[in-house]
Design brief:
alpha+beta; 8-stranded mixed β-sheet; 239 residues; 5-stranded antiparallel β-sheet
Length: 239
Amino acid sequence: MIRRILETAAAFAVLTTPLIGQTVSPVTPTLVMGSFPGLTFGGSGIPNNFVMTNGIVNQTELGGTHLFITATARFADPVVTNDGAGTYFATGGTDLNPPSPLDPYAMWNFSWAITGENVAAWNYRLYYDFNPAAGNFGDYGYVAVTPSQDSWNLGMNFLGLTVPGLISPPSFASFDPNVAGQYGFALIAYNSDQTEVGRTAMLVNTTGTEVVPEPATLTLLASGLVGMAATRRRKGKTS
């Protein structure tokens, strides 16, 4: 799938505007989680029993097109758990299977699929997140995808490329698998008028060797450092 995307890049290089609108609502877990044995996500042995979907019944607006997204462990890395409502919990750190750790991959993958009837009627984008801070949809990147299924890792280098109309990387500089945080994903379908007609989305919370502090924490930390410096100055004057 990655090779198909890169080989198709030349066909999109002449585009000066995105295929579809860039304004979409913030990513929150959407719709239902279920088990879908028919999904392989382009591999073998990838769990398909906790998958977020836009639903199977009464697909009037999408005409029977189904969107799926999930998070799973990479190879034999620690199992990814979930809350049953679209938030997944993964172990942070660097995967030890090639091409990682030389090219650092996370120990978890995000997997997606587009199947069902009428799939050719829509355009699709998969949005992804490098920023460990929560609530930052403006930082997301996207890949224009076609009806298929695959399993990717945020450490994959192609996700950082810029290919007009096809790949737009996140504005946040890079992904670090060792940083604890929250990463969002959304698989979105658009019609020919560039209007969103359906989506499925999830959040992945990770542990890590580093923690991204909240802004309030940074303020308290700065205040504490100022207080320590003032105390040291006072001690210096009395000694």
